[in-house]
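An instance follows:
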Amino acid sequence: DSLVLRGDDGAVARRAPARRLEYRSQRMEVTPTTRLQQRSLSGTRVRLVLGPFSGLPIRRKPFTEQFDVKSLTMPLTLRHWGPGDRFQPLGFRRPSKVQDLLVNRKVPAERRRDLVIGADASGEIFWIEGLPPGERFKVGADTIRVLTLSWRPRG
């Protein structure tokens, strides 16, 4: 099943065929409330809760992000990334292809397919597991309520 390549000089090279990884179609809708909600998608546990904003500076915790609620359109969707998805991480001037962001961060192809993405009702991505939050959804001085999202990667 290997691919055989012959050069002009008669040299023969064998190459294994490229593995084609399928996109995962699993998705779920969630409308966060002030009560803690826990969901699981492909082994990654995600916890969401709405609450008041305690002010700047934000104390960062591992595997936890906060988002300005007024920027989000409910309900939210937890899903995996797909072809053509675009995301604007914190500090970026414009959205980039999710594929490019993950390749630049050297995330292995097998792991990319398992990463969980958060999108609002308009379809705009506000969070990708392991990446900074979306620029448009960042918490600022005028933030009143926040969505706190925490996750436990599988494994």
The first strand starts at residue 3 and ends at 6.
